[in-house]
Amino acid sequence: MTDTSASDQYAGFLPRFFHDRPDADDVMIRTWQVGDPLDDHGIPEIPAPIALFFDLVAPAAERGGSNGFGYLWLDRHPHEKPGWRLSVAHAGTIDELDAAIAKPLSRISAAIAINEVETESWHATRPLWRKRSEPVRLTFWGTFGKHVRGLIGHRDAAGFYQPIGAGLRSDHVMASLPLLEDMLGDPFLRGGMGLEDALRIGISLGRAHLLESWIEAGGVEKEPYFRPMQIWHQAWLANALIDPAIATLAMPGQPPMPALDFSRDVSPKARRLALDNLSGWLATVFFNDNNPALRNAFIAGVQNAVWLDPDLQQYVQPQQRDEILQGLMPYCRWFLAMALYNHLGNLAVGTVRDDQVAFYETLAEALPELSPLGEFATRRDIEQHIIRIDAARAASAFDTLVLPFCDLLMPRLKLDAARS
Length: 420
What we know:
Elements: H1 6-9, E1 27-34, H2 48-63, E2 68-75, E3 83-91, H3 94-111, E4 114-121, H4 122-132, E5 133-141, H5 142-152, H6 157-160, H7 162-165, H8 173-176, H9 178-184, H10 195-240, H11 242-248, H12 268-285, H13 292-303, H14 305-308, H15 310-313, H16 318-349, H17 354-366, H18 379-386, H19 391-409
Antiparallel strand pairs: 1-3, 1-4, 2-3, 2-5
Helix pairs in contact: 2-3, 4-10, 9-10, 10-12, 10-13, 13-16, 16-18, 16-19, 17-19
């Protein structure tokens, strides 16, 4: 890959980023329980009043000037009976949301029991969805709908967007679910690929493998409870791969991105095989010997996802903890040493930036063994101070301090084609 701009490398028309991105804290989501609890964890037919609501809500919300989405899901709480949940989101105030959907909501409430569960922001609601909500229906309107239609309907979508490449219909709930993260999640892969980006992609692959293993080990009894996490984390991975796949459109001779399997009835083993193929593709195209720092960040994420992903940490057994931390230590020491070599060298020649100095002070507060190091420290000095840091503190600082510090010091890998 080269350091030239996307316009010099790829003549095709690329989809745009979501330029009307609201502050995620300003996206309010109201959720209702609809109807009675269900008897089992199968997916029943959508009740007619809910189906009618989805026929009416997008046009009504558009007329009301709303930007948002409607989401129908099945609650897979492990200690409660499953049931229908309806969530409606709006970028703005709750009063605006209520006004925009008042008529469709009155139709549904007149036909079936509906009780409000909660009203929260996107950031407060998303962790709940990742653990408990199995998606059934998803529709967008306003600027959200325009972005979803533009990306899913793009002429090259099958080459860079996993659900379309896997053959899903554009109206399938899994076809648009990854774009929630695209529009409301933390910006990702902007201005090239950094170490944190590589780590996040690695974590997403590692946790997908772990979830498939847990589903297989738990069998039919446990599968419904892991299913929401499997679906949501697969959607996050599909979103994370949009921009690397777009970059390969401008890279002649590279293999096409392998497709994930989004089928509900496919075996965990088959989904793991698809993940293996995807991992091999990423290692070939991006995380290869030409990019050793990115490669190591990617591998660290894959191998340590159970520790680095907050959704999975709760499943770590006490007896596993020491083994996990010891496995992460070589990566942490490698990146910490690389960052310190560069930072202290810059300090010695006077090229260090103020933001790097400030970040180093924060790092040294968390890992005080580094405090004595100065601009005249030798390589041996750096290594001797790093080795004194115990595994637990080093692991806790790895993804929150060490990798971000490295990102401040190293140039990002420029992608050969990128969304505007």
